[in-house]
Amino acid sequence: MTQVWQERLDYFKEMIREDITKGLYYGASVRVGRGGELVFNETIGHSDAAGEKPISQDAVFSIFSMTKAFTNILTLRAIEMGRFALTTKVSEIIPEFAGPPRDQATFFHLLTHTAGWPGLWEVRPGALQDQLDEVIADICSYVSGMTEPGQRCNYQPLVNHALMGEAIRRTDPKKRSLRDIYREDLFEPLKMHNTAMGVRQDLQPRHIIPDMRGTLPITSPGHTNKGDYGIFEEEFAEMPHVGCVATADDMWRFAEMLRRGGELDGARIVAPRTIELATQCWTGDMENELYRWLALSMGWKAYPAYLGLGFSLKGRTLNYSQYGTLTSEGTFGNNGAGSSIYWVDPVADVTFVCLTAGVMHEGHNILRFQRYSDAVASAML
């Protein structure tokens, strides 16, 4: 029988309620699993600031940069299948990405955010982001390396995963669209039926339109939706960095696949060895340059980036971390701007998923999820 401290999980639920009551955010859909058994399954609060629309159990969220988790896994899958390698230069797959020093960057550098160019939220002012071919053309025209690859860790909100998505598409033997590749090679095998790149038409009635609350440094209109953040409402978006929507149940299935070493319900996505390699720290003591400003603005000391091959890691030192301070050193996961997180603690055999409405300032978001992660970790006996 799964051992959990039910009183602590009940307290965790009240933590969420209290934060919503305080106005930190609007609502949350949360799943916690222990050894594959769901031990906490709660949907609390509302999807809107006015508190008029309760979040449904099957609510569909824009997951922002948690999209990168899907791109990372499909990149690692392509590497397993020999379509390219960790050591392959990106310019070998995308020849127009030429010119030193950027043409020396490999897929290892993309996955570890050590490729050497600045952390960009947009490639050029006013450029639309929801169509990958246009984004790749802009990247090849405007993004240059600042340092030799491998010297610095600078988290990339956009560029790295656009390049990985394009590499996945260009090396696909079936010549499919990126949206079809994600659906056929990842979402359908894992029975993630309520997950899609772009807001699929049948998901639109359940989609919580993001309330960004001034948390991002740019606006992002789409090709058909010209609102400030219209890209997150586009049906046919191809954005391997921020373009997916999902439910908490689907994200729990994805996290479970990772906890089980790349397989769920008989569907194997990647090999255990790949997960093992990807969840090691590959950035050493490098700091995350993009988030240095965040630490300074919050009055924190800078700390190591702790990045694997596409995964964020808790790391070995005691830092401010969305993955908690009480989780195991090997805890890994991904998160989305001010709103969403999943992690896997392989020692405690725990999966945690939390998707929220009402995007928070990233510093306060880190503090929120650190508290939540510690509460969940302490409930595992």
Summarize the structure.
By secondary structure, the chain is α+β, with helices and mostly antiparallel strands. Helices cover 31% and strands 14% of the residues.
Tell me the layout of helices and strands.
Blueprint: H1 6-22, E1 27-34, E2 37-45, E3 60-62, H2 67-80, H3 90-93, H4 107-112, H5 132-142, H6 159-170, H7 178-187, E4 196-197, E5 207-208, E6 244-246, H8 248-259, E7 263-264, E8 267-268, H9 272-278, H10 292-298, E9 312-313, E10 332-336, E11 340-345, E12 350-357, H11 362-378
Parallel strand pairs: 3-5
Antiparallel strand pairs: 1-2, 1-12, 3-6, 4-6, 7-8, 9-10, 10-11, 11-12
Helix pairs in contact: 1-11, 2-6, 5-6
Molecular structure report:
This protein is of the alpha+beta class and 381 residues long. Helices cover 31% and strands 14% of the residues. It is globular, with a radius of gyration of 19 Å. The protein starts with 5 loop residues before the first helix and ends with a helix. The model has no long low-confidence stretch (mean pLDDT 96).
Keywords:
four-stranded mixed sheet, about 375 residues, alpha+beta, six-stranded antiparallel sheet
* Most strands sheet: 6 strands, antiparallel
Rg over CA atoms: 19 Å
Which range does the strand content fall in?
5-15%
- How much helix, percentage-wise, in residues? 25-40%
Q: Give the strand tally.
A: 12
Structural class: alpha+beta
Low-confidence stretches: none
Q: Assign an overall shape.
A: globular
Task: State mean pLDDT (0 to 100 scale).
Answer: 96
The helix tally amounts to 11
Give the terminus-to-terminus CA distance: 11 Å
Across the major sheet, the strand order is 2-1-12-11-10-9
Q: Secondary-structure element sequence?
A: HEEEHHHHHHEEEHEEHHEEEEH
